[in-house]
Amino acid sequence: MEQLPKYIQKVNNELWLTEDERDNLKLSYRIKEIVYAGHSPFQHVMILDSYDFGRMLVLDGVVQTTSLDGFIYNEIISHMPLNFHPNPKQVLIIGGGDCGVAREVAKYPGVEKIDMVEIDELVVKVCKEHLQEVSGNLSDPRVHFIYADGVKFAKEHNNEYDVIIVDSSDPIGPAKQLFELSFYQNLYDSLKEDGVMVCQSQSPIFHFDILKQTYKRINSLFPITKLYTAVVPTYPAGLWSFTLGSKKYQTVNTDNFDKDTRYINKEILEKAFYLPEFVKNQLNLE
Amino acid sequence: MEQLPKYIQKVNNELWLTEDERDNLKLSYRIKEIVYAGHSPFQHVMILDSYDFGRMLVLDGVVQTTSLDGFIYNEIISHMPLNFHPNPKQVLIIGGGDCGVAREVAKYPGVEKIDMVEIDELVVKVCKEHLQEVSGNLSDPRVHFIYADGVKFAKEHNNEYDVIIVDSSDPIGPAKQLFELSFYQNLYDSLKEDGVMVCQSQSPIFHFDILKQTYKRINSLFPITKLYTAVVPTYPAGLWSFTLGSKKYQTVNTDNFDKDTRYINKEILEKAFYLPEFVKNQLNLE
């Protein structure tokens, strides 16, 4: 390695990645090896092998998913809508470049088509090659990789999907538009009349404004809106939120849940909707 | 401030605390002000005012509790055993120097006596003075502050308490003995015949060996052993575990739960026992 990527520092002959996302809190990960580093047209992309979290996908210097805990996020964002809808066949994933969501969706034999719309082909490529603990090196023929703008894609589809999963990064840079009301409206229109959508809605500890805004926007469009949480160890403050919008179905049905998973099970899916007091109070549903 | 405590660095005229607890992962908190710094006979003690977490108790350079999220840990470790036992009157707290557990226990009018055995008087003093968001500046006459070695104290008491809460720091340094089998045996003996104990048993992500050892030790003594989890944002990996040993009662009863809390509620108390798949699998209960 002639020159280190700008996000990596060498200290006492050790390599460290220091996340610069927050002004007043820094996480530093000790790195064994820079497996891949390069620029896509959209962002700086790295696969790092770390001591504590195994391999990590790092975009613009921020950890997105890791071998250690990627399954938690990918399972909870995927299996929840797939068990909310009784018979999902057509599934759209917006984002999800690490392929972990597509991998979970592919566990459902009833699903006929999985459209994965990711803007950055390089992310998919390096995750398939270097992050197979998360991506599973997905080769399921039902998965269609569509390298395009998810916002534009949603605008152009209508009454087509049973389930839409928005696996976006934080609402800064390329993912900002994935938190807009007009985007959710387009998702609503892309869903069939009994469709279900879900998106990650940030940390209840640090980003309550975004959580609340997301909830309100989805709630203004969908007759049924549900907030749920999971623990994502590599995200700031650990506690993470997801907002689900449903056109018809009222609740998750786990009676026949039998998937091979590492985080979720029937009880975890059901309890995820039980919110801490401070979340319920701050959400202050009118 | 003439000289900075050794755990604090000044970088570009900003103050930062960098936790040195783990070899391969460092958390750095930007600090507004060093409210207190000093040595007790047991450890280095600081109260820091941080940007993202408000005031924090820092022992030997490691964050123990903060104004932002201290309530989560203190509520889940306290209210669980107090609602497992149907009528707790005599309560023993081992550790808990930030006084947050005592504050939660004092919310139960039926509790007659709260013995809080903390080895380090300085921790209690500075938390009462400078960390009242956590400690509540506790002046309830039922609380007896006993500055002594919790291990020795437990050895000297017999058939006396309804509930024992072990609020220890990590099993390094002074708290190491609070994870030994002989200590749990002494707790067992200190409890009445229908008593309930609980202790924090570290992170399922990073310290599964300690979690498993703790669970097995308590399970070897108590007829009923239950593991539960909560999200503690300032602890590594967010997900934290607690192990409860009960001599008689089988489950938490939240029918009449009516306490003023910010994290827990009936549902959170009940769902805390539902464990992620990887925890159940790794625990591999024989």
Structure, described:
Two copies of one chain form a homodimer. By secondary structure, the first copy, chain A, is α/β, with parallel strands linked by helices. The first copy, chain A, folds into two domains: 57 residues, Spermidine Synthase, Chain: A, domain 2; 214 residues, Vaccinia Virus protein VP39 (Rossmann fold), CATH 3.40.50. Chain A has nine helices and 13 strands. The first copy, chain A, has a seven-stranded mixed beta sheet with strand order 9-8-7-10-11-13-12, with helices on both faces. In chain A, β10, α6 and β11 form a beta-alpha-beta unit. In chain A, α6 packs across α7. The longest helix of chain A is centred in the N-terminal third of the chain and has 15 residues. Chain A is globular, with a radius of gyration of 18 Å. Chain A starts with 7 loop residues before the first strand and ends with a helix. Chains A and B meet through β3, α8 and α9 of A and β3, α8 and α9 of B. β3 of chain A pairs antiparallel with β3 of chain B.
